[in-house]
Design goal:
Largest sheet: 5 strands, parallel
Radius of gyration: 28 Å
Shape: globular
Distance between the termini: 23 Å
Number of helices: 25
Strand content: 15-25%
Oligomer: single chain
Helix content: 25-40%
């Protein structure tokens, strides 16, 4: 059973009257107060900003050539291919963002290159391959005569594979939105919004949106070639953006708003007249109409993702999304729906089995849930792990030993890229991992012949626990892993599971100290049943489409009760029962004589409390039943209600802003951190000062004011360290550690690794008071050991630089989330 949840209500600052009146212009049937509170609370505080947020027609999107030289290089290479009639391959990914990105390039570039002859696409198999490029697939494309590969939603860190492609005579254009490589790879062009500052309107683009920008640039460069308008691609862009859960701000929000409109317009057409009959049929099968963002997040997205989870190969999904053959699209849509039904059934089965295993755990002494089973299908483990993490408030790792003897299995990485542990195992004790995915399809560690059994699995986090850092520090026990702070994939030797479980639990316990992990639900507004309905729905609809950084508003309804509750098993489109429960009910309170309908996915009616209770819900419109209803998120008896008002930490983001920090009177962090513990120290200091003051107006502010680091190559840093050591030995001068750190630009921990490497080269480092004396007596006998020590130092520098790069760009919302959790 899940633990008692902690409920919080976001502190709402009353917006000024002018702002409320400005919002009311868009909600003539209501006061606009609720929407104004939410918009103000979420940082929309200027009239022009408000107008652009609500009305996409007033928003000015960025030119695709904002990507600068890289976009010009990409277009020049495409023009070369167009003029010489070269064969091009699109290399996509198997999730919804990757599938829609492939479809956008297939449809968009298909206006310039003949599909199936000049233009082909490749989607890796989820169950046999990992995200990203791989040499076997590159070999296959080279044999087909391809001269150019265009990646989408992947490829940024596939440096070795890009070099391999180049050796075979294939150029590569990378379009991606994942982690940047340490240095620019040898590509024809790399188009990745992470090169922008985080405030840029293109920074949050997902893979499909980046692909769209490439096509947009080609349309502008060759304006008289395409037969179909560029806007025809926007519905696919909206599907990928919303399904990928990226932050819907800037151009992301604009493209999603435009795309939802195109999606709805196309669905209203007769099936034979639709531009995308496959999308229309999918919407029909899931009883959606395409006009709500939730039609994508709860309808189209899960169905597209289900194909690779169940079948591995999701290549036909591109045909489903782009073909105009109604009969063929109907067939593919039904295959997709069957995969989703199978996914639901498997997910429910695994969830039940995991729940049974949880009864054997003492959650009071468990910080990270790690469970394994030989029968669990790997494709649904991430979904179940996410559910368990939400219910228990603990990071959850689920492992499958199904087919464990297959050493050749790739695919350990979940979202993002997978990372070779050759370097990671060497640096596991040297540094912490900030958050996002790094690396790509690097080779795994060689396995010991005596222990060939591998477990594969998925991990999901909660409560702002940096899951990637937790997993990374156990790199020496892993075969392979990849991911980001809240989701990761991994594989490890079966025999290492007990040791891994104990180590990762001990690590998180030490990190948390006295903090207790508790499942938390946060509400945004307090409303009554009388408030529910069309007026409030249209008011809250101003915030749509919602996503990361702008979540669906959570409504707290207090002192209410339920009537007319019932539940049933969901059926698939063929009428067969799928063991996926949905409870329906009417909700009432003292504010109105009328009840309001609602539903609770995955729950039985008997789980609803008897008598008065409080609940947190989302308000929605059911286009199939043509009614407004609530979606229940959490519920509990009123006697157990203990709400905490969650005041957001006062954190100012002054990164990469010269002289801005000099005007700040609070705490200032000017040195870029290399791990969350460094940052937590400042956050806790800020919170401690705030708690000692009285009133919100006296709360301590914390300014994060570091600049994006300018890193030297690790080899150059090593040569500099050796050069300084030789100079100090020759001149008999002393040096402090602080002077060394400032000169070389590395952390104290990494310097210790460098000093150990110097010793293997014959240097002696001795303390004299607060200084260091370095002498040199060259010794060739330790040459092999020196190579290993230098390699460890270079790996430590690379890891430190990677983490600083992460903290230079980590969204402020993530830092605030960490601070919010630490403040509990």
């Amino acid at each position: 059973m899940p633990e008692q949840q902690q409920w919080t209500i976001t502190a709402t600052e009353q917006p000024p009257e002018w702002f409320i009146q400005a919002v009311k212009q868009y909600t003539p049937a209501s006061s606009g107060l609720y929407a104004a509170q939410l918009l103000w609370q979420r940082g929309i505080k200027e009239r022009q900003q408000l107008t652009a947020f609500i009305n996409y027609k007033t928003y000015q999107p960025a030119s695709p050539f904002e990507f600068g030289q890289e976009m010009h290089l990409a277009i020049a290479r495409l023009q070369q291919a167009y003029n010489t009639k070269e064969k091009i391959a699109i290399w996509g990914d198997f999730d919804a963002d990757g599938i829609t990105a492939t479809s956008v390039l297939w449809d968009g570039l298909g206006q310039f290159f003949a599909q199936n002859t000049q233009l082909v696409y490749y989607i890796p198999n989820r169950l046999k391959e990992s995200h990203g490029l791989n040499n076997q697939g590159i070999d296959n494309l080279a044999k087909q005569g391809c001269k150019l590969i265009i990646t989408c939603d992947t490829g940024s860190t596939n440096v070795e594979e890009i070099i391999y492609a180049k050796q075979l005579g294939l150029d590569v254009i990378v379009t991606d939105h994942h982690t940047l490589p340490a240095e620019r790879p040898p590509v024809a062009a790399i188009i990745n919004p992470r090169y922008f500052p985080k405030e840029h309107q293109l920074f949050n683009l997902s893979g499909v949106a980046v692909a769209y920008k490439l096509v947009e640039a080609l349309y502008q460069t060759l304006p008289n070639v395409a037969k179909y308008p560029l806007e025809d691609l926007l519905d696919l862009v909206a599907v990928g953006l919303i399904a990928d859960l990226v932050q819907l701000s800037g151009d992301c929000r604009y493209l999603a708003q435009m795309g939802i409109q195109r999606l709805q317009e196309d669905f209203k057409q007769p099936a034979a007249a639709r531009r995308r009959p496959g999308v229309g049929r999918l919407l029909e099968l899931c009883q959606k109409s395409g006009d709500r963002p939730t039609d994508i997040s709860f309808g189209l997205g899960p169905r597209i993702n289900a194909v690779s989870r169940i079948q591995g190969d999701a290549s036909f999904c591109v045909e489903l999304l782009t073909s105009r053959d109604v009969k063929r699209c109907n067939e593919l849509a039904e295959v997709t729906e069957l995969a989703n039904a199978r996914r639901k059934s498997l997910q429910k089965d695994v969830q039940a089995q995991v729940a049974q295993k949880l009864t054997q755990l003492d959650l009071s002494t468990t910080s990270v849930i790690v469970l394994e089973d030989a029968q669990w299908p790997a494709g649904v483990l991430g979904l179940v792990a996410g559910q368990i993490a939400q219910e228990t408030g603990r990071p959850t790792i689920l492992l499958s030993t199904e087919g464990a003897g297959e050493q050749g299995s790739r695919g350990a990485g979940e979202q993002g890229s997978s990372t070779s542990l050759r370097d990671a195992a060497r640096t596991a004790t040297l540094s912490d991992r900030g958050a996002e995915e790094q690396g790509s399809n690097s080779s795994p560690l060689p396995l010991r012949p005596s222990a060939p059994l591998l477990a594969r699995g998925s991990a999901r986090s909660v409560n702002s626990v940096d899951l990637y850092q937790l997993v990374k520090e156990q790199a020496h026990l892993l075969h392979r892993f990849g991911g980001h702070p809240f989701a990761a994939g991994l594989s490890l030797l079966v025999e290492n599971i007990p040791l891994f479980t104990a180590a990762i639990n001990q690590q998180l316990r030490q990190s948390l100290g006295s903090t207790t992990l508790t499942p938390t639900v946060q509400a945004d507004l307090t409303v009554t049943v009388a408030d529910l309905g069309k007026e409030l729905f249209l008011e809250l609809k101003l915030l749509e489409p919602c996503g990361m950084g702008n979540p669906v508003p959570k409504l707290l309804i207090q002192n209410c009760w339920f009537e007319n509750s019932w539940h049933r098993n969901q059926q698939d489109w063929q009428g067969k029962k799928v063991q996926y429960i949905k409870a329906e009910f009417d909700i009432r309170d003292d504010s109105s004589r009328s009840a309001f309908p609602g539903l609770w996915w995955g729950h039985y009616k008997d789980e609803l409390p008897i008598g008065r209770c409080d609940c947190i819900a989302e308000l929605d419109y059911n286009t199939f039943k043509k009614r407004y209803e609530i979606r229940l998120i959490a519920v509990r008896s009123s006697a157990n209600s203990a709400l905490t008002t969650q005041h957001p930490p006062y954190i100012l983001d002054l990164r990469n802003q010269e002289h801005s920090a000099t005007q700040h009177t609070g705490l200032i962090i000017e040195d870029c951190p290399t791990n969350w513990d460094d940052l937590r120290m400042w956050l806790r200091r800020c919170l401690a000062i705030s708690r000692s003051t009285s009133g919100l107006e006296n709360q301590q502010q914390l300014a994060i004011a570091w600049s994006k680091p300018k890193h030297q190559p690790p080899n150059q840093i090593w040569l500099t360290l050796v050069g300084i050591a030789k100079y100090l030995s020759r001149t008999n001068q002393l040096v402090t550690r602080g002077q060394l750190l400032e000169k070389i630009g590395i952390s104290d921990q990494t310097l210790l690794v460098g000093i150990k490497a110097l010793k293997y080269l014959g240097f002696t480092v001795q303390r004299q008071d607060r200084s260091l004396q370095i002498t040199w007596n060259p010794n060739d006998s330790a040459e092999n050991l020196a190579d290993e020590a230098v390699a460890r130092f270079l790996a430590a520098v690379r890891e430190e630089q990677f983490q600083q790069q992460y903290f230079a760009e980590v969204p402020l919302s993530t830092i605030v989330a960490i601070a919010s959790y630490d403040s509990k």
